[in-house]
Amino acid sequence: MGGFSTLSAPKPWRHHHKLSTISNQPATKNVPSLLFNPPPSRKPKPFYCFALDSSKTEAPPLVVVGSANADIYVEIERLPKEGETVSAKTGQTLAGGKGANQAVCGGKLDYPTYFVGQVGGDAHGKLIAEALEGGGVLLDHLSIVGDAPTGHAVVMLQTDGQNSIIIVGGANMASWPETLPPEDLEVVKNAGIVLLQREIPDSVNIQVAKTARSAGVPVILDAGGVDAPIPPELLKFIDILSPNETELGRLTNMPTESFEQISEAVGKCHKMGVKQVLVKLGAKGSVLFVEGEEPIRQAIISAPKVIDTTGAGDTFTAAFAVALVEGKSKKECLKFAAAAASLCVQVKGAIPSMPDRKAVLNLLQTH
User: Which residues make up the binding site for substrate (predicted)?
Assistant: First the structure.
């Protein structure tokens, strides 16, 4: 494992208790009865540093603010024509959404992780709450809204390899309060690091990022999600922007085919006010660009067999965030994230493929 050493522990963190079995709607509205209650809050277990023989120590939590979806997968021969009904070979509904994926990754890496997000009071919301809890995520700040369904996506997998996806934003995009509750902002202020994506309204991300900046908490924005320009007001509160090469190209309107082109596109991000850009390059690895410094490149850690790349980017970003909040060097963070992503692609699905800390450490021992 080489240079993975135990560093001084981060500042202590405070645990906040909030059971969000509430609706964000006024009491005068007819709110349907909720099908489930989130499990009671519990004190997170302390985390282990990279070194296998390190002692346990408490740390400020990872706080993920973002989306939660029920992903409905159907495998079909071809898309139906207008007015036609076709049969699916298989069908499966799994918990997903970039926010929930990243939160579960943090939880499965044995790091104290909160998820701040919204689901509807329906069966899909129950599915997501159970998946989050099963991944070790603290649900004190998971809210249930009464007038919107849980966000979901229908993923149509065709036998020729083509995929078509229909997304219903649901509670991810609707019913957010104009001002987030004080309890949610407080957990952001006390975080070790905050992780955002773009599958919830920009206004929510801006509020969270601004609160984090005022408290000196670093913010990582995963650029995945809505295909729209990132508001300048959000960018100015972001410490690390993390796109893949396609997202980087869209955000900058520049080509990203070669390393030189990627570097030029990142230069445009620096001019937009983002000092650090973490670019995910799929099979070509990853690169961290820090303004004024030499880029740090990380090759992939090859998997014996790639089964499913779904969730690999979310795994990479969340694992990088965990390593960073634990005080590791940027090079160590990239390697830890590469190991986690390598394990992720060897298992089908997003949340089911998130690796645990022991598996990541074992892989790092051989690389």
Answer: 69-71, 97-101, 199, 314
